[in-house]
């Protein structure tokens, strides 16, 4: 791939930063809201490859990849509009991507939306215990309540949820909801636009729950609905809260950012297991109920997706992404 031979170049970004005001050169003076779609941004700085990726990540974006003839034409037209003739960084050309050919599927929720979501094509049994782990990159300039995932059953909509509260100038807070009972918010991480590894667990035994971020416990307690198992035959939705069974999404409670490598166990993982997951991205098989796989997801059409290395500490922390269909 010829673009790997460039040492210094300008950057071309598929940019999905959500901010009230953007001062980047090609878009100077443009006002952006959290409801805006993704767009291209050209940054005329000369940077090395890893520095270019960091710039993208800090803006909740990613180096662009051409995955179709339409995107190729979009790219060419964008270059022409700015009279760009020199070489630029892009992630690559992926015109015929194959499933899992480039690592982990990454879901890109660009801005608040009542449409963007992914649905797990998985039949759920009743669960006495559960652990969900996921890599999350919050958009640092979209504020308010945010739903990382929601699980509903026909008889009860708010059966199991992970919710975030993002307040300007404050750390991100996370809370679990089980059978309609909302747990307390725990301070999770700085709102820094970087990737974080989040694991949440719950068990009917005493209603004990744990929230862990980047391998460390940030919140725990008990008495969070110890009266019943999590119900069976539900709908698990990534990125939206369900106001009806499997639907009725609201943009003000939607997720904005990137999500990848969401896995589910039908037991409580201990902190040593969570720490190992966070470092190495090596799946723990005992109790593994759902494994992250593009073939097990129904992805809403407006939700963009790309491919990259899971951002574990034991692997490349700067996530290089590839756009394409699953």
From TrEMBL:
Q: Which GO terms describe its molecular function?
A: metal ion binding
Report the PROSITE patterns cross-referenced here.
PTX_2
| SMART domains assigned | PTX (SM00159)
**Which UniProt keyword terms apply here?**
Calcium, Disulfide bond, Glycoprotein, Metal-binding
The protein's superkingdom reads Eukaryota
Residues that span the membrane, as ranges: none
InterPro entries associated with the record: C-type_lectin-like/link_sf (IPR016186), ConA-like_dom_sf (IPR013320), CTDL_fold (IPR016187), Neuronal_Pentraxin_Related (IPR051360), PTX_dom (IPR001759)
Residues annotated as domain Pentraxin (PTX): 103-312
Instruction: Answer whether the UniProt record assigns the keyword Glycoprotein to this protein.
Output: yes
Q: Which cofactor does it need?
A: Ca(2+)
Q: Does the keyword Calcium apply?
A: yes
Annotated coiled-coil positions are none
Against CDD domains, the record matches this protein to: CLECT
- Which protein is depicted? Pentraxin (PTX) domain-containing protein
List the source organism: Anguilla anguilla (European freshwater eel)
């Amino acid at each position: 791939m010829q673009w790997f031979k460039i040492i210094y170049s300008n950057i071309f970004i598929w940019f999905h930063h959500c901010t009230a005001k953007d001062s980047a050169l090609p878009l100077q003076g443009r006002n952006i809201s959290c409801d805006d779609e993704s767009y291209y941004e050209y940054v005329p700085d000369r940077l090395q490859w890893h520095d270019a990726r960091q710039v993208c990540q800090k803006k909740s974006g990613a180096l662009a990849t051409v995955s179709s003839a339409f995107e190729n034409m979009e790219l060419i037209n964008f270059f022409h509009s700015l009279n760009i003739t020199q070489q630029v960084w892009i992630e690559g050309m992926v015109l015929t991507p194959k499933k899992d050919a480039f690592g982990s599927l990454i879901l890109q929720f660009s801005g608040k939306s009542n449409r963007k979501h992914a649905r797990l094509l998985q039949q759920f049994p009743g669960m006495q215990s559960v652990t969900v782990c996921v890599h999350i990159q919050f958009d640092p300039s979209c504020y308010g309540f945010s739903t990382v995932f929601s699980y509903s059953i026909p008889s009860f909509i708010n059966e199991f949820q992970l919710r975030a509260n993002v307040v300007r100038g404050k750390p991100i807070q996370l809370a679990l909801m089980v059978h309609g009972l909302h747990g307390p918010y725990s301070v999770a991480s700085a709102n820094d636009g970087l990737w974080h590894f989040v694991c949440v667990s719950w068990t009917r035994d005493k209603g004990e729950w744990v929230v862990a971020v980047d391998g460390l416990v940030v919140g725990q307690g008990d008495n969070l609905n110890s009266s019943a198992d999590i119900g069976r035959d539900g709908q698990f939705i990534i990125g939206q809260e369900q106001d009806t069974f499997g639907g009725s999404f609201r943009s003000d409670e939607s997720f904005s950012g990137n999500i990848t490598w969401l896995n589910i166990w039908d037991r409580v993982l201990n902190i040593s297991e969570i720490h190992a997951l966070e470092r190495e991205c090596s799946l723990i098989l005992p109790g593994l109920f759902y494994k992250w796989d593009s073939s097990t997801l129904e992805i809403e059409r407006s939700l963009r997706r790309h491919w990259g290395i899971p951002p574990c500490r034991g692997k490349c922390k700067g996530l290089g992404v590839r756009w394409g269909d699953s």
